[in-house]
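Worked example
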Amino acid sequence: DGNLAITGVGFAPERVIVYQTIFNTPKWSFGMGTKADNDYQCTVNNYNNSADNAADEARIVSIYTAADPVRAQASIGSWDSDGITLAWTKTGSPTGSAVINFMFFK
């Protein structure tokens, strides 16, 4: 749990696209957000080796490291002058690493 500043964008973003994957698994999430109404949502695939569980969530990124409900999720805490700040929460005890890619737009 906690905040993580994503900086070095070079401008104050107004829109963001986020794609997250976990290496060697079919788990991913794809999110979009806009500053104008501070609206964001992601689609997540929590493939748990027995069923393909896709869902929409009111987060910018959602990382399932094991079967539901073990996960780490981030909302946009703030839109900053050089990026964004993610507000992370976790459920259970997620472990491991994920790759998170950001595309920022003005």
Observations:
- The CA atoms of residues 45 and 105 lie 25 Å apart.
